[in-house]
Design goal:
Elements: H1 2-10, H2 14-25, H3 34-44, H4 49-72, H5 89-112, H6 120-129, H7 134-159, H8 162-169, H9 171-200
Helix pairs in contact: 1-2, 2-3, 2-4, 3-4, 3-7, 4-6, 4-7, 5-6, 5-7, 5-9, 7-8
């Protein structure tokens, strides 16, 4: 059934990109990769490349927002046992503190790089359940998706059919670059915290 739905959506081109982006971001797996569909649309019709990218951003942000809100208001039923294992109160509090500081980075990395094997929906659900401020969450998702989808549209316009090969051959280089930036941001946050603690000492 999902295969039939995906095939029907693919036929709609840019509008199908929006629908697949929304449905996939809700956590419903479709047998059609949004990234591959966006590249195909952009290669076949370069004039619609950025339109398709914009629709992919809107669909993905919308789907992630609904998943985030569902987790924020009664999302415990959405979290499967295999996704989040029960933790003792002490460890749960430590995880809460860690997520409050670095959680948005764990959302940004898989949201911006399609090759990182991290389950984005788990972090989106965690962000909702831990009541991450909505503007911050949406800002991170929006920025990541704009970079990802408009970057793919730009590659499709510039490289045409070679865009698929370029992304495949440079997948882990791109992932490593994003991870390096994330680690640098973590280092900056820790440095800022140490400076603040030092300034508060008598």
């Amino acid at each position: 059934m999902l295969k039939s739905i995906a095939d029907a959506l693919i036929a709609f081109g840019p509008l199908g990109v929006f629908c697949i982006g929304f449905i996939d971001s809700l956590g419903i797996p479709l047998p059609a990769a949004l990234d591959a569909l966006l590249l195909t649309v952009a290669i076949q019709n370069p004039r619609l490349a950025y339109v398709a990218a914009a629709l992919a951003v809107v669909g993905s942000v919308g789907g992630n927002y609904f998943l985030f809100r569902a987790a924020r208001y009664g999302g415990s039923r959405l979290v499967k046992e295999k996704d989040v294992e029960p933790m003792p109160a002490g460890r749960r509090e430590k995880f809460r503190q860690w997520f409050a500081r670095y959680g948005l980075l764990t959302i940004f990395i898989p949201a911006v790089v399609p090759f990182v094997p991290l389950p984005l929906k788990v972090f989106v659900i965690s962000a909702g359940a831990m009541r991450t401020p909505t503007p911050r969450f949406l800002g991170v998702i929006f920025l990541a998706r704009v970079i990802r989808y408009f970057g793919q549209a730009w590659l499709a316009i510039r490289l045409g059919q070679d865009a698929h090969g370029f992304l495949t051959h440079n997948a882990w280089n791109m992932a490593a670059a994003v991870l390096a930036m994330a680690l640098a941001l973590v280092a900056v946050v820790k440095w800022h915290d140490r400076r603040r603690i030092t300034a508060q000492l008598p």
